[in-house]
Amino acid sequence: MNLFILTDNKWWYKKAFDTFKRTNYQVRFFCSPKGLKLFEDEINQGTIESLDVKENCNFLIENFDLGFSCHCKQIFPKSLVENVRCINIHPGLNPYNRGWFPQVFSLLNKKPIGATIHLMDSEVDHGDILYQQQIEVFEWDTSKSVYDRVLDLEYKLFNENLEALIVGNYEQVKMPNTGNYNSISDYKELLEIDMDKPVTMREAIDYLRAMTHPPYKNAYFLADNGEMVYVAVDIEKRNT
Question: Is 90 a catalytic residue?
């Protein structure tokens, strides 16, 4: 069986690469063209290749039996997912907050969050669920702390069920509904702080928790002189 993995996440690349080294399966790793800088060393070493999934759709169809999308920023074409079995590793609990940055929106809208491994279809984060698990979110969590726990859970589900995923020995569960979807535009609309917007302290803290994801600078307001001022929150639970 010929396998490929498309990822734009360095953490996931390292985990998957080490995992497949311990198996007899041969897999080719690809990243998006935008990942050239992130994966510069790996590309030079020949362990990962840059690939535009739309331009190389026929290549993937003709040469592979199974593909994994592990935090890939490219949308797989309809023709690809209809001709090659493709599985997505998604950092959200489908059908809640499908799309971009599920943990951010979960902290804001209080919908459940977790990890989902699902078959891919022509819609984003939409196919039949194969494996899924929810995590608990605490009042002291930030986007970063939730995301880190989701990553660990994703890999746990992937690693524990790898053989079943490859051979197709799993139960497929339809999503109960289409849930909600958040685009990158929805996220970008959250970034600028309206300094005159009336909110409760709970809403303000929840917003800053959702926007705090070091080393990235996300939430900002415009100072009187027009300069952007970034804001994050330092939040910590007291250990008793």
Answer: yes
